[in-house]
Here is the input.
Amino acid sequence: METVVFALLNGLIYGLLLFMLSSGLTLIFSMMGVLNMAHASFYMLGAYFAFTLGQSTGFWFALFLAPICVGAVGACVERWGLRRIHAGGHVGELLFTFGLAYVIEELVKIIWGKFAVAYEVPAELNFSLFELYGAQYPAYRMFMLLVSITMLAGLWYLLKRTRIGLIIQASLTHPHMVSHLGHNVPRIFMLVFAAGCALAGLSGVIGGNYLVTEPSMAFSIGPIVFVVVVVGGMGSLAGAFVASLLIGFLQTFAISIDANFAEIFSFAGLNPEGDLGRITISSLAPMLPFMLLVLMLMLRPRGLMGEREF
Amino acid sequence: MTDYSVDLVPDLAPSSQYKFATRVLPLLLMALLLLVIPLLEPSRTSLSLLNAVGINIVFALSYNMLLGQAGMLSFGHAVYFGFGGYAAMHAMNWIETASYDGGVWAAFPVFALPLVGFAGGAAAGAVIGWPSCRRAGVPFAMISLGLAELIAAAGLMFVGLFGGEEGITGDRMNGVEAFGLSLGPIGEVYWFIAFWAFAGTALMYAFTRTPLGKLAQAVRDNPERVQFVGYNPNKVRYLVFIAAGGFAGLAGGMSAVNYEIFTPESLSVIPSGLVLLMAYIGGARYFAGPILGAIMLTYMQSNFSDYSEAWLLYLGLLFIGMIMFAPRGLAGLLLSAVSGIQHSLTVKSLLRWGAYCTAGLLVVVGGVTLIELAVRRSNGFGEVFEPFGLHLSPEQVLPWMYGGVLLAAGVGLLTALHKVGEGESK
Here is the structure.
């Protein structure tokens, strides 16, 4: 019971963090048709910006400033990078963002060093909120939950209930019509790209001190974000939400299960010896999202809630 | 009615002379070059670099069977390189055991191990390609990425097959000696690598001339039409995928014999990314492009990493620059330079070329100065950047300004040239 409750809570927080990352990626994908391989790099930039800004302004200002800075970087990338190669087709754009991920990682190494920086949870939130089965539960995780849910609600309101959201949704499906109506569609694209990057930056700000802020953080979480987007269905925000939580729960539950295949095999009456028997469920956790991805693409290529096969 | 239609149709097929010059001569030149290199008595360092180049040429060409020929963007091609390499590595150890205890493998020369690698890579391609080749474009790229991550993680788990983190090692000086080569000294390994690099290149070139190779190009350009003509594009992709996996495995087998060690790291996404860069920077649209890319990147990898810690940054910038300004790669740049010299060699065009080169040089020099200063400042060891006897300290403002001014001048000149060029074309 204890394990289940903790795994549920942590899985929820991890899943919401993943959703914050993948919502930006999904928005960008459904609008521009480009899968931003450098998306996790913007997440990393968010964490590093928050670290640097936080030293002079404190965490609370950094919480707002860092995503804006990341969004500005994203806007520049779209304006002077992606827009220029848009005519060359999607493979060029995919490769561009792939190269960008390399460049951002190396730049981060030069600016902030090769090792993890001491980006820590702010002192105001560094206490335990409540006690659960004798273990302290840190308040910062609840804060993460709060930020994620606020962002989720804000994003939903913006897209579904405002005029801006209406124009954005229209530009997704009918870009020509929207531009005939007098809207600057390339600028909308740029703003959506910037907003997606800013969302990634925000998740970096609150995820960087929960996990570790180091140059390899982008490459460790990046592939999982793709899995979320593909499993949820390309371009579907609701699908990304479900898939984020699914993968969040899946990974945290797998980590908390203390068993290996030998026990399962001997339970099933199979030979527990050999390499396969030595594998523990928890060591499989990093592989689970990719297994899910491959299965999903084979069995239901459009993902959980995707409307079309992309 | 006189029938005059047949005689008037000109012979559109290329002449045999043209065929020889474009299809056979380059391969002959390559063979000649491979034969001449040992006469120059290269040092041990350059021999080991040449061996690495040979392996990467085959690997990059096999990758380009997917990217350039069939239009499939894969982020996990190192998986097949790795499976081929592991197959060859295990076979090498079987040869060693068989040479003491006897057995079938005792008669198998180490020289032919790349064939085992080919079989391993092709088998992996046949198994993994079955689910992934049913999709093309971005989904295919995503599946390949997911599978690469999956297999890289599995590589560390199945210790018996992949040898855990330290990998598996072998000894190439066992079994039957082919062509009188013991494969002990690096000079003899050179012949091994040269033979297989040539064989791999020739076979992959031959593949582009087969009906399947031609169909692959058709699938790349317009899969719908291919389907309309009566072929199944997914089947074509699958067959090309198996062949590409096989040649990647061949390169893996070469690597297994060359280094005598294979670790799960060579299955991971990092070498997969590197081979993608090789093929793209070299020029994916040309058969010879990946060869250029493999030579350049292997050279950079072994030499630049000594000079500069930021070589991966340079590589990334080079890649992005290629995508934005020269999507046809190095091969495309070379070809347009050659055709420029042949067709429009005027003073004006020379001046333009000169201006472009100057601007490019300014950008490179300014950018390198800034990056190197930044690296030294970030390390904090008080190092000084000393190119060509200059003394540029990262603690002073002036060197940074030099770099900044050079970069700005280069970018400004490029923008101005671009505007002039646009004005002329209007």
Residues 16-312 of chain B form a domain with the ABC transporter involved in vitamin B12 uptake, BtuC fold (CATH 1.10.3470). Chain B touches chain A at residues 71, 73, 131-132, 134-135, 137-139, 141-143, 145-147, 149-150, 153-154, 157-161, 269, 273, 276-277, 280, 310, 312-313, 315-317, 319-320, 323-324, 327, 371, 374-375, 378 (CB under 8 Å). Chain B is about 75% helix and 0% strand.
